[in-house]
Design goal:
The protein is mostly helical. The protein has twelve helices and no strands. α3 packs antiparallel against α9, α6 runs antiparallel to α9 and α9 packs antiparallel against α12.
Amino acid sequence: MSEKVVKGIHYAILTIIAIAFVLPLVWLILASLDTGANATLKLPDSWTLDNFVGVLTDKANLRAFGIGLAIAAIQSLMVVLVSGLAAYPLSRYNLRYKSGFLYGILFMTALPMSAVVVPVYKMFSSMGILDSIPGVILYLTASSLPYGIWLMKNFMDGVPKELEEAAWVDGATTMQSIRKIVAPLMFPGICVVFIYTFSGSWGNFFIPYILLSSPDKMPAAVQLYQFFGQHGMISYGPLAAYSIIYALPSVLLYILSQNYMSKGFTMAGAAKG
């Protein structure tokens, strides 16, 4: 088989994969601009923004977006803070049970949330924090910490310890060296952990659906379910518009963080050089 034929096969496979990814996005955009949208891919009979207006003027949707953003932002900040402080001794000190603890963290990263949600439900019920947003934040934070600690520890290992020792000689405390030296140099890692945690929380349907029962406390991920209606009747136009708006926070966060991540990599490279 000639090289041109092999290249042609590769390009054909890549094209098919690209089409499989692009077509749903095209349908999403076209359906969001069509009040009479259905499950088929077609041009709108009349181009309109009524679906977006309907979604954004619904108080229930706005409340769900606000709750979802609050849960994702608070959880992400807590995970970054706690995992950073927990990763510091694992990276800097020769602890006696360090390897066993790291293997335990690695095991917990593979533990599915569905495996522990039933005992958590019972525990939250006995503690009186079931059907509460702080309870959801607490559970999502705890479930994200193992992976966050693992990532933070790996990024922290890349920061030379000699820089901290030089700061200690100049009279800096441990917390000052973490805040002024370690954190800026591992800022790319902090961004990665924050974006990963935020995206996971923002798109989490299962946990809020299980732990919350009041409709006015549901985040945006659960509110999406309203467009499926009853007896299989789906509002395709509003559903597509809602989905596009729902995807914007994660996309914007990733785009805006690129500049800061680049600066962080530059600082880390300068320090190592």
